[in-house]
Input
Amino acid sequence: MKKCALLLGVVTAISCGILKAQDAVSAAREVRSLVDPRRDAGPTPLDLFRVESSYVFSSQLENGTGYGKQDALQSSIEYSHRFLLTGRIYLRAGVSYDRFDFGSTGAPVPDHLHSLAGVVALEYVVGKDVGAFLQVRPGYYAEGSFGSSSFDVPITLGRIFVLQQDQLFLFVGATAAFLRADYPVLPLAGLVWRPNEQWSVFAVVPEPRITYSPSRNLDLWVGGQLVGGSFRTDHDPNIQPRSLSGAVVTYSEYRAGLGVEFRWTDTVGLNIGGGYALQRRFNFARADESYETKPAPYLRAAFKAEF
Output
């Protein structure tokens, strides 16, 4: 694939609200980091590191009635290394940890959710560009302690097609996760359009955005973000309703905002943004219970490095 191609992220389904599991979010992170139109093809990065944190200010949590105000803190860190297998095919292996912490309310929702997973992927790589990949993230996705009931193996695969050289690109694929209650298997699709070197339009979820690049080392963006995942909650004999004890919960945040990304080099960058979390939601689909918050401001910072 040509160096000018900026790849697109993974669209999680036809609707923004359908694909909420952590595997889709992590796959989109991978896809977004694969191709950058400002950098040369160069050698393939072998070590990939990412750390991210965000904070959503408090707002009312409701389920027909109010349960008080709740804020949220999200943190994640990931490292992986590529091993050359043959030609342009690489095995990428690593580890990822993600965590959400929530303010206490009277609602029967978790105070925190977290996941610890391995990262194993087969990738077809040309320079810094990934043309196709198959990724699995075996690990534990839970409220508290890890156990067999919280083990999952999210799978994502995809391929990128050039629709118009250096300007228009299509990603297609699929994702599957056992803990995702509503839609365990989903198709993926997304587009990226680059009319020129300064503007990029990412028609993608979980991070659709429009980007303006006044220089090689600076991006200004406006767009949205979908954050969350599916987790197994702890068993609690005192929780009401009882169907929420040991249940699967899908947590999601729908954000709209703007920000700036600084790049010291083609492979090291810092992204800072903020805006409004339009809604945060705890969806216990199998128990037919859902808890949602009012909109609230959020702040976000993310650092990545590839060597």
User: Anything to note?
Assistant: The chain has a mean pLDDT of 86. Residues 22-306 form a domain with the Lipocalin fold (CATH 2.40.128). The chain has one domain: 22-306. DSSP finds one helix and 17 strands in the chain.
